[in-house]
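Now for a sample.
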Amino acid sequence: MIGELAAGFAVGAVLGFLLKRSGLCFTGLAYEGVFQRQGSSLVLFFMAIAVEAVIYHGLGHAGLISIPSFLPPFSLVSVGLGSLLFGVGAVLAGGCLVSTLVKCGDGRVEGFATLAAFLVAGYSVSAGFALLVTVKLRSMLVVQDALPGRLGLLPLALALAAVVVLGLCVARRRKQVVSLARESQGAGPLFRLRRKAWTRERSVVVIGAVLGAAFLVSEQFGRSYGCAAAMPMLSWVFSVVPPDQVMGGCNPYDVVLGWGSGFVAGICFGSLLAAVASGAFRLVFPTAMELVGSVAGGLLMGCGAMWGAGCLLSNGLVGTAQFSAKSWWALLFLMGGIWLGGVIDRWIAKGREA
């Protein structure tokens, strides 16, 4: 148990550190892409998926990890509705659940408000008084989670092609910037750790690689799944308040304390480490409106992650790399929810100005 928690913690710490140092937020990339119509941001979002997919399917065909031959069926209604709500909540809260953990680590109090609201809502619909609603939604329009050629070489070939095409798009679209290597030439490792920002282009590639490598680490403990945040976060609550029945999340391993539990704790620690290393750690208290948005967003993400059987990380970035039909279906509604969240956020801003 301790070794499993420690392994997940280490991977989470690396991811949290990278996210904090790069300032990268995948909700932000999706928001820029679907609401602000910045195609370059969507290119970066899908680049992370493509890099992860290359590593995942490469490890699978090398026999280092197992690619499941069967994925559980899912409800088109539940996953669609849940993902839509999660997308709206992520915008209102200023980031998805992973971004919330990064905020907790670097001292932004709004992150704790979002996290508390998420845990209340998530527990209620997955194991509490609203469990019957989840059961009903999960039984509507159930289909098989299967994409043609998911177990063959086609996913690896498509992922490799996507990396090449998206890489060319990044090279053509990105602005002239001083490369990290040139900027830090002659400087020691501490200087590179303290840089105020890392380029988003390189960050998505490295983060995609971390998400892909996480499958190999997780596999060592019998957990044939990648990174997830929603159910692992709730596993800490379940360990204190054991439920009679649980329904929700994207895999059965994360209901109890284990690799995923350590992973989400590691994200907070990695963010804290990065903030301290750069001298950026400080307690930041939200305004009243920011607090309302954080709580509302957390409640929506809590319900959305359970009904959608995953969050922006597990469905939008990890499951899509596995060629899961459920995750690609969820990603459509996550993007739609992020767009709708942008509309609501703009409407609120106009109301405040008036």
